[in-house]
Amino acid sequence: MSIEEIFSFLIEHQRVESSKLKLDSDLCLDLGIDGDDFFELMEVFSEKFSVDLSNYLWYFHHGEEGWNFGALFFPPPNAQVPHIPLTPQSLCEAANKHSWPVVYPDHKLRKRRLDIDFNKYFFIGIAFVGVLIAVYKNAT
What we know:
mainly alpha, 4 helices, 45% helix, elongated
């Protein structure tokens, strides 16, 4: 597997500008691939190059899709660990080994996603207040 094949894959799959591609370009920070796009990229990459991603930990490399209100109060997984750049060079290494080459540092994530719990309860609360207002308006 050559780096040119990885560059072609990124250009084709993510429409990355070839002028931005370097061996050490961080797919998230330098190329702007994040969230669902990153998840999809890794799924297609794994299938196309027969790479076992069972040891892949997304939260070291990128964030999730969209804006997370609860993350203002409780850090999501990617904010609980140091960022590890995922580069075309590391994709090339993975494709040649057919396994994930990154060795992650010891870390401990919270067992529960407090940011997601906060979002659920916050929006349930807003809906409840909306129902109370509607009931009050209909009663008067």
